[in-house]
Amino acid sequence: MTTLQVYDPPMCCSTGICGPAVDPKLAQFSADLDWLKSQGVQVQRFNLGHEPGAFTAVEEVKAALQADNTACLPLIRRDNQVVSKGVYPSREQLASWCGVKAVASLPVVSGCCTPGSGCC
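Above: the chain's sequence. Below: its structure in token form.
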């Protein structure tokens, strides 16, 4: 089984729909990761603001942070090898890295988190 690890910069949540300024790229990326999971890919996601230990536990991630600070984030590893730094990739790129057939993604409709949703 393919494993994809995403090391995100510090933020309130990984969905991209928190706070006053919704980032549609981040919301789309979250939807694409959910799609990858439905295709059998094991996805692990770490947020520097909430799980700093995950960033120091992997030498490649730690070295990238030391060299580039947070400019290397998001850092994405597939099966323990870095495949991307500094950008959120498209669904097509993710599918290619994980060996699954890409299907067109629907645009994500953004909105605010609701109280109690656990988003923020």
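The longest strand covers residues 3-8.
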